[in-house]
Write a structure and sequence with these properties.
Blueprint lengths: L3 E3 L4 E4 L5 E3 L3 H5 L5 H14 L12 H5 L8 E2 L5 E2 L12 E8 L2 E6 L5 E5 L11 E2 L9
Antiparallel strand pairs: 1-2, 2-3, 3-9, 4-5, 6-7, 7-8
């Protein structure tokens, strides 16, 4: 069974984590970059629309977003630079994605180019986007 399944409804399911991701990130959905608070609002809007038939979309935590990053995958971001997510994700997305991890006025971003996180002003508009997810939150391995 392949790891990722294109559900043909704008979503992708990861068989290793059971997480379901939207194929498009927020910039691809809305045509604009957005800060974390707008990203959280987008999740609420997607839930009201029942995107993919679901109403539990959320901003991913850091461990969630780490699961789709893999140097064995190759995709292209909005500037045609290589990012390391599966080809089923829509090409032309952001190279950095918001997580729900907040510390005061800063929030954690995850780079789909470098595979690492960094703190950014949570009201910074970009070029930042969110890739919405649903399913059980992933937790950091203690191994």
């Amino acid at each position: 069974m392949p790891r990722f399944n294109d559900n043909q409804d704008g979503t992708i399911t990861d068989s290793e984590t059971s997480l379901t991701w939207q194929k498009k990130d927020s910039r691809q959905l809305t045509g604009r970059w957005m800060h974390l608070e707008k990203s959280q609002k987008l999740a609420k809007e997607q839930n009201e629309l029942k995107t993919g038939g679901f109403e539990d979309w959320r901003v991913p935590n850091l461990e969630d977003i780490k699961t789709i990053y893999d140097k064995n995958f190759s995709n292209r971001d909005f500037g045609n630079n290589e990012i390391y997510i599966h080809e089923y994700f829509e090409k032309g997305g952001a190279d950095c994605c918001w997580t729900d991890t907040i510390n005061g006025e800063r929030a954690m971003m995850f780079s789909l180019v470098k595979g690492r996180s960094s703190w950014i002003n949570k009201l910074g508009d970009g070029p930042f986007a969110v890739r919405l997810v649903r399913g059980e939150r992933q937790v950091k391995s203690t191994l």
